[in-house]
Task: structure prediction
Amino acid sequence: MKISKDTYQKITIKLKINGEIVETDIHVSDLLLNVLRDKLGLTGAKPGCLNGDCGACTVIMNQKPMKSCLLLAIEAIREEITTIEGLLNSTIQKEFVNHFAFQCGYCTPGFVMVSHALLMNDPNPDKKTVIEWLSSNICRCTGYQEIEKALYSVIKGGNACGLKPKNTVKSNGAKKTDETGRLN
Amino acid sequence: MISFDFEYYRPKSIKEATDLYQNLASRGGKPIYYSGGTEIITLGRLNRVYTDAVIDIKSIPETQTWGFHNNELITGSALPLSIFNEKNYFPLLAETAREIADYTSRIKITIGGNICGQIFYREGILPFLLTDSDVLIAGSKGVKRKPLKEVFDQKLMLEREEFLVQLATKKIYMEMPFLSVKKRQQWKTGYPLLTVASLKKDGFLRFAFSGVCPFPFRSEQMETVLNSRTQPYEERALASFDYLPQPILNDIEGSNEYRLFVLKNTIVDFLKKFEGDENK
Result:
């Protein structure tokens, strides 16, 4: 017999998102995607396939892209999360606009996040690497050329990361991760 | 969204994990070991997997090992697939792993999760089948080490309370010539049709396959035929099909006839690359 969610009590967790510590009540089985959108009002991460295929829900966790539909919120405790809201006025965002690298825009946050994560890890990636990273995401209404152009324009401009996520609140003693990003 | 809730545990040692499993199971629970969790999350959402407690093994140090020890490469089961290309100690594994899912997903999918999952591709096992690797399995009686070929028959045969901790592969295999190719019906990012991996040891070609049958496998009978150098490549490939396990997959990604057509051509390509052009 299946047990409904109400059988289990909610727990309160702290997450570090876009440099801020936020506290929220969750069920253990809640996905980070749902917590971001439904509990924290961060609706930039989009629900798409909910199967890890489309990348519309991509966030950055410890400088790596992560599909938030494949991550329990409880796994994100003590990790550094950046959402599209944390990239406001970033170089990559501006270049997506300049190159009209979107049409309906639904997949765009995911593409911006994976592009930004790539540049955080490799400010001057070769074409093979660009293709490999961008292939994690799917757009169904425009082409990929403009997205690549936006990314390459940031690379050429030499301002790969453009903007660090805002850090308006100190961590206030929150436990930190080690250099590999694993929990201490 | 997953429609049911569960308890979440993150043990820091093997013993803590196996004790937890026993305690939860003895109370009538249905615990499950959790590593990357991608399959549990996606199948859980579809109500095709159910658990009332997950035991996340990522904080167990042994599951995060990636490096050489006493002339063996130790691969921790909770390593994400992406690490094999970032620190490429095992080129055949790196080449095979980089074709699983997509880059972002490979940061979450773990090698142990891929090997022990329900998905029938499970390509992560192929390099270990080809290299006579051992597996270290944790259970209620501690950790046991077994040759992979003794405990892998279509799937890794684990008892309910057991989990895969590590794989151990002799260092000499890292230097051997290999090929690993994934074939898709459409595009570079489409779902897989099949994967063929091959390793040349002492002049003899070993072969392992994924996506041909509903399970990955290595066939020594097929290898014997594929190494019979008196026959042309295509004849060898077709003759080896007499020893294919059954059934051959027949699904939306490709009919059984199409899979065998692609398999034959892939094997011929491999033989050409390893042994040279037949016309020379």
User: Anything to note?
Assistant: The longest strand of chain B covers residues 192-201. The two ends of chain B are 59 Å apart (CA to CA).
